[in-house]
Predict the structure.
Amino acid sequence: MVIEMNAHTKRTTEFADTLTREQREYARNEMARQFAELLARSPDENLYWNESKTDLIDLSHDVYMTESLVDGQGRPFPFGSIVKRACAVLHVPAPSNPYSMAFNARNRKGVRQSSLFSRYCWLMFVKQDRRPLNGMVKKISG
C-alpha cells in the first residue's frame, strides 16, 4: 500500500533544470569566478560562511568540475586543495572526507533541499542578484 501511495509522486524539478543550457553555463561560470575571488581572500579578513558545510563542499565540487581554477602551470587545482583553501578562508572546519560530503550533497537523500547551484541560479535569475555568493558570506569585524 505504501508503494502504491508513493509510486505516482513526481520528483521535484530543480530550478536550474528549468533554465536554458546557456543560462546554466553562464551561471556556473559566474559562480566559479566569484568563488575564485573568495578563495583569493585572506583568512585574516574574517569572512565566514553562512550556509551549511555541505553547501560549501557542494560549491567547491561544482567549481572543481568546471576546471576553471588552475595553478601556475595551467593544471586544474585538486578538489582537496580547493576544499582546504575554502575552509581556511571561510572559517569552516575542514571535513575529513570531502569526497564523501560532495557525493552526499549531490544525492541529498531524505532532504528536501535543492542543490546550491540551483539556489544560486534562482538568486541570479529570479531575484536579479548579480553576486549571490556575497549573501552566503558575512564579514565579522574583529
